[in-house]
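User: As part of a screening pipeline, I want to sanity-check one entry by hand. Below is the sequence and the SMILES for flavin-adenine dinucleotide. Please return the complex as structure tokens so I can compare it with the automated output.
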Amino acid sequence: MANDNLARKINEDVYSRLDAAIEATVKIDADRNDQEGRFPRENLKTLAEAGWTGVLNEPRFGGLGLGHVDFAEAAYRIGQADASTGLVYVMHVGAAQTINLFGNDDQKERWLKASSGALLGTYSTSERATGGHWWYNLSEAARDGENYVLNAEKSFTTSSGQADFYVVQTRTPGAKDQTDIIFFIVDGKSEGIESKPWNALGVRANHSGPIRYNNVKVQKRDRLGAEGQGKEIIYDGVSPVYLIGLGSVWEGVARGVLNAAVAHTKSFVHKDRNKSLSDYQAVRQELGAAKVLVETLRPWRLELAAKLDELWRAGKPQSEILIALTEFKVHAAEVANKVASAALTVTGGYGYHRGPIERSFRDARAAIAMGPSNVIARDWIGKSLVGLPLELFYEGGE
Ligand SMILES: Cc1cc2nc3c(=O)[nH]c(=O)nc-3n(C[C@H](O)[C@H](O)[C@H](O)COP(=O)(O)OP(=O)(O)OC[C@H]3O[C@@H](n4cnc5c(N)ncnc54)[C@H](O)[C@@H]3O)c2cc1C
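Assistant: Here is the complex for your manual check:
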């Protein structure tokens, strides 16, 4: 009992540190960062000081040692305040978790524990050559003695030009086929990294622009897992944590924009009738329908995240629930878009002005495109429904 109470107290402290970090930076800077396309570095610094960038890392490497339920809750709370910071956070925790699962102690020491856990990581997988088929790379590493040389043109990488390390996916030198994939941890300060500016409709602060790796030298000690282990890393390292995190951010965006719409409709009064917008039944219908959509996400998130924790602790592959995670991502993306649209409807010209409501509307569009895009994802879900293989790596591919 005493131990339970202590655990609850520690958990409460950890969550109050998270909320304080969100209040102190993420919330305050969201509109400015969006308008100026300013990377939310200080938000990540505050989250790191609160311990939350190391949410899944082991305590011996400076982490909180928590699970996916907590990670997803953090992504949801951050997303509620700012989608850009939410995505930077998810890519970072995802990159760190890939190291947790497939890295060695030396890598955890240098990339996760170093600088008191303040190093920022991200995923760099998608390539211009293969677009939304982000698991399928045409780039191929070369050998440099026992080390490697990386040449790749990546089309989108969140935190590009800002990250301290990139978890990069490419083909193994002399790859025997398309599934012969290798992962590296690439130091963000390496010579030959060239990142291009990010100017987009939404999530304008998260620097998700193109990045090139031109003859970037990578030491053997920064190879993640074994040569050829990349396909397993895609399924069991990158995808599960990314999908639960991504869906949680969009759930946060949906909840945040609904709250903003409710606040406005309650406070704005038509003086001719002395009625607030929320006094109109038509407005309440819109809000009610949006609320029902938002409420579908929380129990699903908790169930999937708990299952991820169970599989992780049991040492089983988390890709067991890949399709369910994909369904959650698709639904969260659609809910965020529908709820942001309803919020714009009920807030009229007020919502249309630059600010949190129109920002959420623009941000939510990224949810549809981000891999697997909702179009591709629905095809995966349909294939699994009728018993067909996903065929991510197909015959005839280069
Ligand atoms: C904000 C943002 C952040 C991102 N962050 C990262 C990151 O950190 N790391 C990273 O590696 N990548 C990242 N990406 C890339 C993302 O995951 C996708 O790979 C990318 O958006 C695909 O875009 P594309 O235009 O190249 O796709 P395209 O392949 O050109 O897709 C165009 C359209 O065709 C459809 N389509 C494509 N293939 C098929 C198919 N087989 N069947 C049916 N329809 C299909 C798509 O759904 C889409 O509607 C990010 C993207 C965005 C927008």
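Points to compare against the pipeline: The CA atoms of residues 80 and 253 lie 5 Å apart. The mean pLDDT is 96.
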